[in-house]
């Protein structure tokens, strides 16, 4: 099937990616799903209908990816909820705590994740890089971006008071 797979991807690759986008959040995720589907299809011993098998594998991989993304969001929501409790112990002033909670919740997920791991979980940048599968330099950049956004949010909140 490897030679057939190459031709199949040449002929149907864009359609397979488009099909994967039914469940995938981004084009990159859909491409990753199609790549995983190719690997799954290659593991099949005998293939009578390779195109049908590819669509079956793409669907299966895309649903797996969707489930994984949903589990991640649920886990992140639980962590975010737990952070609310972390704030309670650290600030005497309810207004400061509320502003920080709002600022943290306003951050994009990838920035909030780095802040949570760095500050509340006390993880090193290298550990966070391993956890998030982003380079340590990328983690540092995200952390700096998050701190800048938090600072900006807090400055705006204090200016409005």
> What is the structural class?
mainly alpha
Rg is 22 Å
Main beta-sheet annotation: none
List the domain count as a whole number.
Answer: 2
**N-to-C order of helices and strands:** HHHHHHH
Strand content: under 5%
Strand runs, count: 0
Shape: elongated
Helix content: over 70%
Number of helical stretches of at least 4 residues? 7
Distance between the termini: 67 Å
Low-confidence spans: none
* Whole-number mean pLDDT: 83
Topology:
Layout lengths: L1 H19 L6 H16 L7 H41 L3 H13 L2 H12 L4 H8 L3 H24 L2
Helix pairs in contact: 1-2, 1-3, 2-3, 3-4, 3-5, 4-7, 5-7, 6-7
Overview of the molecule:
With 161 residues, this protein is mainly alpha-helical. The chain folds into 2 domains: 2-69, no CATH class; 93-159, Winged helix-like DNA-binding domain superfamily/Winged helix DNA-binding domain (Arc Repressor Mutant, subunit A, Orthogonal Bundle). Helix content is 83%, strand content 0%. The chain is built from 7 helices and no strands. Helix 1 crosses helix 3. 18% of the residues are buried. The model has no long low-confidence stretch (mean pLDDT 83).
Quick structural summary:
The protein is mainly alpha-helical and 161 residues long. The chain is built from seven helices and no strands.
Give the key terms.
Arc Repressor Mutant, subunit A; 161 residues; 2 domains; mainly alpha
């Amino acid at each position: 099937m490897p030679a057939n797979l190459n031709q199949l991807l040449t002929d149907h690759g864009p359609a397979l990616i488009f099909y994967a986008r039914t469940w995938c959040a981004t084009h990159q995720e859909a491409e990753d799903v199609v790549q995983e589907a190719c690997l799954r299809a290659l593991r099949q011993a005998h293939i009578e209908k390779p195109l049908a098998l590819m669509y079956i594998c793409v669907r299966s991989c895309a649903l797996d990816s969707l489930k994984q993304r949903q589990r991640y969001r649920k886990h992140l929501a639980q962590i975010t909820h737990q952070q609310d409790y972390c704030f309670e112990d650290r600030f005497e002033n309810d207004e400061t705590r509320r502003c920080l909670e709002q600022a943290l919740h306003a951050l994009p997920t990838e920035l909030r994740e780095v802040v949570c791991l760095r500050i509340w979980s006390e993880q090193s940048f290298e550990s966070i890089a391993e956890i998030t599968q982003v380079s340590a330099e990328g983690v540092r950049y995200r952390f700096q971006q998050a701190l800048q956004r938090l600072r900006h949010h807090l400055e705006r909140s204090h200016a409005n008071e």
